[in-house]
Amino acid sequence: MSDDTIRLVTIGRILRRRWRLLAILTVVGALVGYGTSMLFPPRYTASASVLLPGQWEERALLTQAEIATSSAVVDRAAAALGWKGVSAGELQDRVSAKTSDGNLIKISGTADTPEHAQRLCDQLAQQFVTFAARIAGDSTDPGTTTGPDALRQQVADTNRRITDLANAANPGQTVESVQVRTELEKLRTTLQEAMKKLDQTDPAANKAGMVVMGPAARPAGEAPPTRVQLILAGALLFFLLTVVGHLTAARMNRRLRTEPEIAAALGSVLLGTVDVPGERPAHRPEGVRPRSGLRRLMGIDTRWDVPAPLMSTDEAGRRIRYQRVCARLRDQLPAPRLLLVVVLDGDDVARRAAGQLAAEARSGPCPSSSSRGYPALRVVGVSVSRPMVPDRDSESGAVVVLSPGSWTAQQLAAVAEACADAGHEVVGVVSAVAVRGRPTRPADRPPDNATPALAVRSHEKGGSA
């Protein structure tokens, strides 16, 4: 798994074998999202549009949007609303403005109720139009004329002077008088055209004409993130974190999964693979921690990153595999002798396989037969953290029985070193694989492969399996 590419089949295996854990953590994530929504009260957002007549450049529109949310406008809106406990600084964080097509500025306000959001948005739009009109050139002092209005006044005065000069010119039909009047009329026309272009191109001339496009609509729903969105986000986040956590743990897993890797880590050869029907204990053994029941309830008491167990053959087929392992042990040894069967603590599948292997060795052919007898086997358990193998006495070798995907190369190397320290040579490795047992047949119904079973017993008595 650590060197394989993560594929959809891996995700599917997580969903099939960890669905209980995923469901529990998804519910926990939904509860966390609900708790988060309780910390943040609901918010409602209303919007109003302000029309800016005339021709505006994009930069000028952006400037007006900034003015709409400036402190000068927000402070005036806060003073007009007069909400207790809400300062202008808090309103500054609740308002926004953006430009849109058609010289429109969309002003939005967020509050704790739909009514407050509507009032805030309307007041903000009104204060923006008023403030824009003031900075466009309107003055509270009627006796003061500045900006474009002053320019228009000067143009009007100039037109009157032109008229006076034209009347004061020689009314006769001399060439000089006609030329003077013509030049004065050209000057008048030029001034009028310049003022017309100024009115069309200067946005400041139209700022006083901003229009609020109706009152803000009262919001019908909460502003995001809503309570439902927070609950769904929490559930999805916990679900994804659980899946990613499984994938990360699988990528970091260094347990050996193939028989050649296991045999190489122990410095020995593979004798064969045996099947062990999967079983669940009927009652909790002594010494098992109480939280093992919780692990079983959550579905994390079994590995998810191993292939699904195959369907087991019948009892006769399983015995054939054990007999072949015993036969290979007999062929490797010069004479029948006693061997240690080393099983690591916590490997229940290997422990049952070792017990079945020892029982099969005891029921094998007798040493006086033509095929010689099977070696005697004694099962011993070894701790994984501090492996300790009994010293060599009457035994003359060790056979390691384990299940693939359960131990790392460092752990197996420590077991091999412990066997060497005790004077035992690791003569072989047996891989124990959990399989699904077939349903039991009625006692009065003979098995389908009764004939091969008789052939197996002839092999046991007559020759190698």
TrEMBL record:
Top-level taxon of the source organism: Bacteria
All residue ranges annotated as the Polysaccharide chain length determinant N-terminal domain in the record: 4-65
Chief localization: membrane
Location of the region described as Disordered in the Swiss-Prot/TrEMBL record: 438-465
Transmembrane parts of this sequence: 21-40, 228-249
Membrane topology: Multi-pass membrane protein
Keyword Membrane included in the entry's annotation: yes
Keywords for this protein: Cell membrane, Membrane, Transmembrane, Transmembrane helix
Annotated compartments: Cell membrane
Xref: InterPro entries: Bact_polysacc_biosynth/exp, LPS_length_determ_N
PANTHER family: CAPSULAR EXOPOLYSACCHARIDE FAMILY, TYROSINE-PROTEIN KINASE
Similarity comment: Belongs to the CpsC/CapA family.
Name under which the protein is recorded: Membrane-bound polysaccharide biosynthesis protein
Organism: Streptomyces violascens
Taxonomic path: Bacteria, Bacillati, Actinomycetota, Actinomycetes, Kitasatosporales
